[in-house]
Each structure stands twice: as C-alpha cells, then as structure tokens.
Amino acid sequence: MTCQHCQDEATVHLTETVDGQRRELHLCVACAREAGVALPESAPSLALDAVIQSLIVTNVGELVGELASLTCPDCGLKFMEFRAKGRLGCPHDYRVFARGLLPLISRTHGATRHVGKVARRRPAESERLRLRTQLRDAIAREDYELAARLRDQLRPKDADA
C-alpha cells in the first residue's frame, strides 16, 4: 500500500469512524509525523513471553498480569496453574496469592473471613510439606543423596523399628 501524500510505502494505517462513515488514512512515517500522529520510538517487542504477558494484561487485567509471575515458595505452585486447575497447593498459597484470591472468595462465598469450624492444627505439617517440596526438587535435579536424606526425614520415627 502506498502513502496517500507522497506515494512512498505506507507503514502507518489509521481508521476513523465518524457519523457511521468509515475513513481510512495510509501514510508513510514522514507524512504521519508531519500530520502530527504520535508514533512509538521503537517497534514493539515480539518476544513470545512479552506478547503473552501483554495479552494477559489486555484481556484479563493488570492484576492478573502481576499475579501471573507469582510462585508459592513452599509448594512451587504458580498463580496461573491455580487458575487453570482450580486447586491450591498448600495453606501458604492463600497468603501468597491473596490479591487474586480475595475477590474470588468474596464473589463465591459473600465474605472473605471464615466463620465456623476450624480443623485441628498440626504444626509439623508445614515442615513436612516443605520437606516434600524439597524432595521433589531434589529428585528433579537428580540429586539422589539429598533426596535420600529428605526421604529419611519424612519417614515416621516408629517405622524405623
């Protein structure tokens, strides 16, 4: 397509609808600058992760764009995995993903504060969860010596007898 002013190659394409009539304008960069059209300084980044992040922010919102990069340090769950599967990995996920979970919980339950029965707390469970996560990571890295030590720590004490 050629520029409507100087017949060079048109790289700026504008479409305007006024009173139901559509008007298109095709300009080269020089003619677009002369006409006062604000142009970006550089071409947009076409890296795949940047494009995906841009699509997330555009279509789902800035909050989800920020949350997409969050990962729970205890269980390794990413926020986008939670969005896809609908399940959290550990109790710490509520704190890590609070900004994304509170609106969801509020919409679903009508409140964000629990009222009712509470399960008995077992303080050793969070330590066991952390050890299991470390065990999974050690196996993935093929660090079998560390994995064996972690496995031994996870075994119940009475199982050794």
Automatic annotation (TrEMBL):
One of its GO terms (molecular function) is cobalt ion binding. Residues 130-155 form the UVR domain. One of its GO terms (biological process) is stress response to copper ion. InterPro entries: UVR_dom, YacH. Transmembrane segments: none annotated. This is Uncharacterized protein with conserved CXXC pairs. It comes from Singulisphaera acidiphila (strain ATCC BAA-1392 / DSM 18658 / VKM B-2454 / MOB10).
